[in-house]
Amino acid sequence: MTKKFYLTTPLYYVNSVPHIGHAYTTIAQDILARYKRQQGFDVHYLTGTDEHGANIEKTAAANNVSPKQWADSVAAKYKEMWKTLNISYDDFIRTTDPYHEHVVQAIFEKLLKTGDIYLGSYSGKYCMSCEQYYNDSEILEGNLCPVHKRPLTEVHEETYFFKLSRYEKPLLKYYEEHLEFLSPKTRANEIINFVKGGLQDLSVTRTKVAWGIPVPSNPKHTIYVWFDALINYISGAGFGTHICDDKQEHEAQLKKIGVEKFEDLWPADLHMVGKEIFRFHTVIWPAVLMALNLPLPKKVFAHGWWTVEGEKMSKSLGNIVNPAEVAEKYGVDPVRAFLFREVPFGQDGDFSMESFKNRYNSDLANNIGNLLSRTLNMAAKNIGDLPETITGDYKLLAKAGEVEKIIDAAYDELAFDKVLEQIYGFASDLNNPAATKEVLLELVACLRYVAKWLTPFMPTIGPEMARRLQPGKIEKYPPLFPRLEK
Known about the structure:
alpha/beta, 46% helix
């Protein structure tokens, strides 16, 4: 039986167009998905868009369109961006998809019956941008949101609550027994301490937000955008057999994603998120799953943020990097590789064009590109046709096997920078000026490894490199990585 691997990005909020922060998460999961497919896994890669809530309502009104029209236009931009960046996702879910909405409603009513959701009223400080309440200990001086640094709004409303407090001890027990769940380890204590500080029940409906999924038994309430969005990870995996009324709709979803039953995919192997939404995915989401008696995802990994030339990205500064524009100028694959070589994955990073060009020229043009051209030129003169298999007592070829083990271990840690460090380092070791037939055969065999290792990061250039090294007659090729001028 083929091993499955189910991985997800967060659903990206459609209040604005995609930028390099969204691309970072999505490319990271794409690299992992491609690597796992190379390893023989049956991969299911889910991404998509989060489309409900007051912010979308407001943005759509400002642009003189309906919320659904606005969501349609931005969701299309995400799909276009992922096509440009060569993202090999298997499914793109939208929270306005009817099947997803029906699963959310069915889960809400189920938890209402079990007592995990109850009706009450709420007064609190609310951030319109985050679409969440903050308690006094989290609010910055001057009544400011801890994320957006904007004034919070005092809100009073009837609301349904999810009994998050009920899951305080079960969550702490789960963290203790599943050390991989909170990743990277540097972020685990923040979550553990937050839960140990005591969990308050969570408001999960709004009466003042029309653009959302209505509560079936009380339609004046719409379901809180985060409660709605987090459920995508199971609705997208075909959850609903025993909970949804429309069995045909459920069967159509399973057919769409190519599985026989929900349990074929769930639990997810990896949720990848930005650090600002780690808490939603490691506190609220697992508590909802516990309430549904479902297994929890194996790992939630929070990566860092990107700044641009040392400044935080913002519309007012006009420094939001559109990765598609950089890719159009310099190539998709070099951009993908740069993002994961520049900083250790999980930490914050800075995007600068000078760093990009330096890395491109040193790692790609001078190292791998020159090595490939020189090897093939010399092989054309000294070997002729390239053989299919190359064996022998070759030290570098033996080292390739060792490097591959280190690469596999680095992938297990999601240390993408270490994977590239190994690939580029091994390529440097191959820069041998000798041109004997034996040396050239060894270089060709080793470069075939390099091409395979590069492919998850560079899904166009990796296979092109492999094609140039395939058995048979050597042709003349343009440079793989033309040098960039400073």
